[in-house]
Amino acid sequence: MHYRNLTDQEISLLEKNRCAAEDWSRIQVKPEFDPQWLHQVYFAGEVHLGVFSGKVEVEKGLKKSSGIYRSYIEDCTIGDGAYIADVNNLIAYHIGEDVAIENVGTMLVNRESTFGNGIELEVLNEGGGRELPICDKLSSQIAYLIVNYRHDKKLIEELIRIIHNYVESKRSNRGRIEKGVRIVDTTAIKNVNIGSYAKIHGTQLLEEGSVMSCEADPVEIGEGVIAKGFIIHSGSKVESSAILENTFVGQSVDVGRQFSAENSVIFANSEAFHSEAVSLYGGPYTISHHKSTLLIAGQYSFYNAGSGSNKSNHLYKLGPVHQGILERGSKTGSFSYMMWPCHVGPFSVVLGKHKTNFDTADLPFSYIDAKSDRSELIPALNLFTVGTLRDSRKWPDRDKRRDPNKLDLIHFDLFSPFIVQKMVNGSKILKRLKDNASREQRYVPYKGLHIPRLMLRTAQKYYEIGIKSYLGSELASHLDKTQATTFDELKQELIPRDANGKGRWVDVSGMFASQEDINRLCENVKEGSVASIDDLLGELRKIYDSYPASSRAWCCDLIAERLGIQLKDITKDHLIAIIEDWKVNAEKMNNMIIKDAQNEFSESSKIGFGIDGDQETRDKDFEAVRGGFEANAFVQGLKNEIEEIGQKADALIDKLESM
Asked: Does residue 138 sit in helix, strand or coil?
């Protein structure tokens, strides 16, 4: 970019406007520069100035003339159309076009910095050993591997090397404020890069970090915020006196209302208000809205923390070395207490105060409640609650990310190979426990919990309903799309062309993947064929994109296993039976969910309605606010779904029989 020296006439006019410089010869300007838009500015070091003209919208509805007013500028480049006013110290920054900075105490880069990149967080385990170096290209999947695969020393060394190489590319003694940024009424910004169109207003302190804003999805940082050692990604809002220290905030995350976090990561579409986080691994859709909630040394995703939820990492002798895992879709009730270590299976609900360590990883959709003398487990019960189904369907609609480059790879399916394999394992576990239990037993112990013996058979049946619904739904989806005209052609389609998808599946912080695919990726990293962070993100994207095919391969494999045959030997009768099972069990599941929804319209639900009237007034008030059960859109949707599944099942059976 071409710059020139100031003319004597321009210097004279600047001095007339009460501007000064250590050395005017070190001030360079664009050819079209007009000095009339600079007043009471002191320049030090090397400064490059663009062209100031027109108005800049500093805040909504408030426009001011482009230029520099009442500020100290040192070693900076300032782009065209910028507005800078009342900045005590602006040092070592490249300021982009159309930037507005007003009433700021200090903005400086005072040393060589990587702007938050490379800071190591003690995530998941306060005692260390799972250190996570953050960077502005960190995804929840990369973090998952670094944090959870510490058993593979070579892999961790290579992943850390990849991150370190990228971090070094960010090192500079100059900061950047990109195009369209607005910074108003802020006390101090030190060693921080700020991406385009970010809005920073009333912020107290930003130090050693990066704000990864973009035009498609700007970042907003608001009143009273203090952030030290951080990365805040596109679409996120951090406001209302939040305090972040050594914390990574992913894309489209809302943080505020005095929330505090240290040594924590919070990935896409999460919300964190009021509460406290320490060594938190918050996967996508981690939600904490309430005061007195402590998320400490735990790993979560698609999680909802009840008010006052407490994760205890006390009772230690060698330091705070304990940790806990709550797999996707789990919830904790108000004032629930869990003493780490614990591992909770997917879509489970934890109620009450638990003082034992337990593991329900292979028993998803469970209720875990604290009784006076025990922690009680009811497996599979949450499979049939309206809340579980509603949650799974609302998450895709609540993906707020508008950044075209979505870092976290998220699968939303309620039933997936990862979840269904746990239901299969759970069914086997419950059968074994049932077969080995005596009739005299009221409770059967299981990994720190007690299961009512009489629930073993029922819960096993519940898992089977879910498994059969999944198998039939997946088969129906394939039959809908198939171009096969003969059964032999269809049978060939059902046989997977490669082994991808078979075996164990994992939930890599929001992304479903076969363990084999993840292991293959890890081997490629160790061998050096995945050399950069972009390579790593690309390989993870391939696994993500392969999910439909890999999932179908796993499903077909499960069908063969449960039938006790090879897929090449499958018959029409086998497939028709699977479709018929789907029809029956999907109807059962939806009817049980509808029954659960009906409880939301019970007599007890109407308590507090019609405050000044009789029962008739109460009922009318309830209906005016909540509507009626029969007219409820969610309930109607489930009823329609039952009818549609029945019709589709009959049509697919006819299709199979005609082949």
From this structure: coil
Residues forming beta bridges with residue 174, ordered by sequence position: none
Q: What digits encode the pLDDT tens for the residues 530-557? A: 999 999 999 999 999 999 999 999 999 9
CA Rg, the chain, in Å? 30
The overall pTM is greater than 0.85: yes
Residue 200 contacts residue 186 (beta carbons within 8 Å) = yes
What is the SS3 assignment for 254? strand
Q: What average pLDDT does this structure show over 346-369?
A: 95
Q: What backbone phi and psi angles, to 5 degrees, belong to 613?
A: -130, -170
Choose among 409, 147, 151: nearest CA to 279: 147
Instruction: Give the pLDDT of residue 629.
Output: 86
Phi, psi angles (nearest 5°) of residue 48: -120, 130
Phi, psi of 409 (to 5 degrees): -95, 120
- Within 8 A by CB and 6+ apart from 404, the residues are 216
In one-letter notation, the amino acid at residue 221 is I
Length of the chain equals 659
Residue 112 pLDDT class (50, 70, 90 cuts): very high
Checking if the pLDDT of 438 tops 80, the result is: yes
Bridge partners of residue 172, in order along the sequence: 113
For tokens 């060698």, name the residue: 318
Contact 322, 297 (CB under 8 A): yes
How many other β-carbons are positioned within 10 Å of the β-carbon of residue 7? 12
Q: Are 623 and 605 in contact (CB under 8 A)?
A: no
Max Cα separation, the chain? 102
Tokens (6 digits) for 320: 């705070």
Tell me the average pLDDT across 350-356: 93
Residues facing 445 on adjacent strands: 450
The tokens for 590 are: 């939806």
- Determine the residue type at 382: N
